[in-house]
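The following record pairs a protein chain with its ligand, protoporphyrin IX containing FE.
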Amino acid sequence: MTAETPLPVQVVDTMEHLDGRHPGYRRAHARGACFTATFTPTGEAAKYTTAAHLQGEPVSATVRFSNGSGNPAMPDTVPGGRGMATKFQLPDGTSTDLIGVNLPRFLVATPDEFLALVKALAADKDAGTGDQANLQGFLAQHPSSVPAFQALGAMGVPASFGTTGYQALHAFTWVNGDGDRQAVRYRWAPDLGEQNLDADAVAHSELQFLIDEFVERLGAGPVTFTLHVTLADPSDPTNDATQVWPADRPEIVVGTLAITGEVDDQDHWAAQIFDPTNLTPGIDLSDDPLPRLRNSAYSISYERRSRGE
Ligand code: HEM
């Protein structure tokens, strides 16, 4: 890796350095499982966006839940990011993706900052001293990253993939039939409520319990999430996922996702790609620079894992 190596390649190489290279697996959110679902929109979004899945008719969806680590052996009993990637199947045969994690805000605002962050974490790993001196140095230089790290540090261990909320974190732009544009942020709220395991339950859990727990839970009936969208004020930042918008911004209820069972073919679905830039007419990227980096990084990860690397 040299200074001329494109930034997204440097990012993925450094992620591999951090979590190890695990052939065939995603370079982040390595262990996961896919489920079938139906999304039923309320219709409340229709005046803001022409997106086909947000009008009135239900659509099929596939959901991949994951543990955030790039190491597929990472225990679920360790607090940390959990992911929910949803692919909506649209009536015209295309799809659109919505990807969330159980964090309230992101760690950095720009691609350069993300690279600096993963390099600092890698330097701490190489130093092996356990004092996280490089991360502390990064945070001293990037105070806007501190709140997300505090949130990460305060995380519990979710009792289920179905008992934690997931945020898409970036701003996206909705466009309606008149061409009006509205900046939004998405969040999935679990209808089961937020539930973490207590210390005793963590101590008595299997190390990788989340997928089995979810499959077993689905045996008793669908697990549902409600999709909420916050409507930004024009003064709210849309290019910085470290900043949350003021709590009094209006929210609308966009629809309900009912997750019904496991997909028939986990191997087929494990090989797919969920990409935050896979949008559909009626939804545009905002001026947040991170989704474009993610698009490149996810493609690099996809190419490597598709080759069995
Ligand atoms: C900007 C910096 C980021 C980078 C470089 C990055 C990188 C990656 C990579 C390389 C993968 C594996 C992709 C694949 O092989 O298919 C991945 C997966 C994932 N990332 Fe990110 N990510 C970033 C930010 C985020 C953010 C902000 C979120 C939360 C909204 C997020 C949530 C996820 C999830 C849920 C997955 C698993 C998707 C799936 O199940 O297929 N990432 N990320």
